[in-house]
Amino acid sequence: MTLAAGPTADTDPRVALHRLRAEVAKAxxxxxxxxxxxxxxxxxRGHVLLEGVPGVAKTLLVRAFAAALDLDMKRLQxxxxxxxxDVTGSLVYDPRGAAFTFRQGPVFTNLLLADEINRTPxxxxxxxxxxxEERQVSVEGSPRALPEPFLVIATQxxxxxxxxxxxxxxxxxxxxxxxxxxxxxxxxxLGVLRAHHQGFNPRDLAGAGVRPVATAADLAxxxxxVGRVGVVDxxxxxxxxxxxxxxxxxxxxxxxxxxxxxxLLAASKAWAWISGREYVTxxxxxxxxxxxxxxxxxxxxxxxxxxxxxxxxxxAVLGTVPTPR
Length: 325
Ligand SMILES: Nc1ncnc2c1ncn2[C@@H]1O[C@H](COP(=O)(O)OP(=O)(O)O)[C@@H](O)[C@H]1O
Ligand SMILES: [Mg+2]
Prior knowledge:
alpha/beta; 325 residues; binds adenosine-5'-diphosphate; binds magnesium ion; 5-stranded parallel sheet; CbbQ/NirQ/NorQ/GpvN; Rossmann fold; P-loop_NTPase
């Protein structure tokens, strides 16, 4: 996902939201596509899964993104002994009032970085997935709404499977996007070293010059605008055809569901709008297909043994399904 030049009109919330990329770049070298993905998540009210090895600036990026939007952010490390109440909050006894009061868990924030989500057992994973969907925590029957916006950014290490609990497809489906956080190329890594050599301190984002450049109001206006993005029937048909093609691919044992198709539609609209268009083109759909569908399909074991990847299959699907013109 790479974006062309942004819009220019001052009243356009896109201008403010485009500034986010430059602001995050004051702390993070590269990883532009991840910033765009997080923005799509916020615009679509969809959560984001980040897959990457440790040390590629996932945490730094989310912190800088939160600072540039002036949003509250919390990081929660998912460990084998984490309990559902450690995520959502729990009732605690208050001896003075001789009553139970609710102590909010870390989900009561705008951006929750759920680190290494597959290191925690299914029960605690489910607690998080439930609040992701419902955007509220129910304790003793009384619902408590989460702040707005609320975005979960969960991380997963692609190389570590020992002692982990992989999320089942039904739960992965709740993430709008799955983004791969790549290792930097040589020039980018040089840039990281230069910044550190010159005194960049990842703990001090304000010192690095990261300032709030967009507001919750810009986000809300952006969300409204995305809702007005047009999609002609031919493009809707293209999205359906792509998803249907994943269901008959000989390399896949599980294709994208209709929920996956609706996710692809939503992400395409947000992408089109961020890119400066008021309607979705087939190229907008193509641009987000991998990140929207890669976690919603499953390779056949034979294909996996042959070393085929899900992204290769999705590229093949994009190459074979006729593009409407
Ligand atoms: N692309 C990058 N830009 C700037 N700093 C980076 C980058 N990649 C790694 N670093 C440095 O390495 C650290 C990686 O830490 P962190 O954000 O915790 O990574 P992760 O969460 O992916 O494990 C950063 O704090 C920063 O010092
Ligand atoms: Mg981290």
